[in-house]
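Q: Focus on the shape:
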Amino acid sequence: MKRGVKTGKGTPVSDTTLKYPLWQNHYLQAMAETHPELLKGKISAAEQVVSLRLKQLAITTDDYEEQIALAAALKSLKVLKQQWTNPVNDSMSRYAMTALHSDGSSFCPQA
């Protein structure tokens, strides 16, 4: 499914096919958000959707690839939240994480 993730101003960040669109849209929106006033809400929404999906998979399937991607997404969101609460002049790290996650490697939430 093709999805264009947008930042707070509606600027497309990517137009890629998401392997797990149920939660990846929320994750990528949080990772791409540049407005501090919107970031907390997007991180929280992404964490909720990712956590819910992890719980669903634990009960219903053996899709380990998605479980690994979900765990990596939660870890990245935690790092993003720490950067948001303790700002450091490291604006590129968020974009680096997003780029890494779009390469399809097994430890990344983007496939």
About this structure: The longest helix spans residues 36-60. Helices lie at 21-32, 36-60, 64-85, 91-101.
